[in-house]
Structure formats: structure tokens, C-alpha cells
Amino acid sequence: MPHILGLDIAGRPFRWLTAEQAILYNANGKVVWDIGEPALIFRGGINRHGQQSIVQSAPIIAVGRLDTPLVQTQNYPPLGGRNDVLFQRDRHICAYCGQQFCKDLLTRDHVVPRSRGGQDTWANLVAACRHCNHKKGARTPEEAAMPLLYLPYAPCRFEHFILSGRNILLDQMMYLTSMLPRHSRMAMH
Ligand SMILES: [Zn+2]
């Protein structure tokens, strides 16, 4: 089952929706506009006239409802505990040795260690393999003589949805990439 990209009516993504959530929005008439050919088709019961109810959802739906979770005004969603999004941002490449690893072999490394006041922010976290993370210890890259091979950055809202999506459909990818700022490392030039 694909996930459906939920937008507010201004076209800003607010959540990847499960099939059930997307079908409910459609069935309840909460979808104001949508983009793309139906990605989900749910067949319901048969009424006494012998007609079967069908509810569809496009891959991208704009939901207008009073209780729509208000899209945070900040354009850069906080990282939170999502290691998978961080590793996606860094393409599963260790920031210190440059090798690519599967997620189980990666850790989140604080560039400025927490013991030195480093925070849990996009700009202070990189993917690092266990070996490099251990070797670096509670030191800065300069102190450890382990220069960063790439600089961490905070993904904008649209980048964040690309990074956090699973099996993103073509329409969804095209919508999200079309909204990327020009300087985005994920933009297609
Ligand atoms: Zn490494």
C-alpha cells in the first residue's frame, strides 16, 4: 500500500498518510483538491440498489478541515529521534571515512560532542560508522584530526518529506522535487 502525501490547502506537506487515513479523508469529503491518477481504490459494501461503493485516493491530496494539523510555520522540521531520516540525508555514508553502510552499522554522531554543549540538531549531527564514532569519542573533528567529509544541513520541509518517505510514487516525487529550493543538494539540475 503506497503512502499518500497529505498537503494543507496551501500545498505544503503535513504528513505521509496511511492508506486508511487517505481513504477516510476522501470518504468524508475532506479532500479539497488532489494531484495524479488514483493510487488507492477501496471497494466497500453493496447497497440495496446493488451498487458497490468505491472510494479512491489520488497520490497527493490537499486536505481542508478545521482540525487539520496546522503545518508548523518553521520550514525546517526538527530532527527528533528519526535516525533513518538522518541516514537518508547523509546517503548512508559515514562522515569521517566516507564508506557507505547499512543503517544497522551506522550511528548518529554529534559533531560537537554533547559533553561539550553540542545539541541534537540537524546542523550538529552526521551519520558515522561505529568504528569512526568510537574513534572520535568525545572530541571535535579538529581535535580528533578527523575532518568532516561533508557538512551537515537542515533539510527544508520538502526535502524532509523526500527523506522520510517510503516507496515514494512518481507523482509525489515530482511534486516534492518541483518545490525544492534551487540550492538544494537534492534538486535535479
Ligand atoms: Zn566511518
Quick recap of the structure?
The chain is of the alpha+beta class. It has helices at residues 19-27, 83-89, 130-136, 141-144, 157-164, 170-178, and strands at 4-7, 13-17, 31-35, 40-46, 52-57, 60-63, 106-110, 125-129.
List keywords for this structure.
alpha+beta, binds zinc ion, two-stranded antiparallel sheet, DNA Binding (I), subunit A, 6 helices, 189 residues, four-stranded mixed beta sheet, 22% strand
Task: Note the main sheet.
Answer: 4 strands, mixed
How many domains in all?
Answer: 2
SSE arrangement, N to C: EEHEEEEHEEHHHH
Query: If strands are numbered along the chain, what order do they take across the biggest sheet?
Result: 2-1-6-3
Whole-Å distance between the termini? Answer: 31 Å
By DSSP, the count of extended strands is 8
The helix fraction, in percent, is: 10-25%
Mean pLDDT: 90
Quaternary organisation of the protein chains: single chain
* Distinct ligands: zinc ion
Q: Unreliable segments (pLDDT under 50, ≥5 consecutive)?
A: none
Beta-strand content: 15-25%
Describe this structure in words.
With 189 residues, this protein is of the alpha+beta class. The chain has 2 domains: 4-70 and 164-178, no CATH class; 83-144, DNA Binding (I), subunit A. It has helices spanning 19-27, 83-89, 130-136, 141-144, 157-164, 170-178; strands at residues 4-7, 13-17, 31-35, 40-46, 52-57, 60-63, 106-110, 125-129. The two termini are 31 Å apart. Bound molecules: zinc ion. The site of zinc ion (ZN) has 8 residues, from strand 8 and helix 3. Zinc ion (ZN) binds at residues 94, 96-97, 99, 128-129, 131-132.
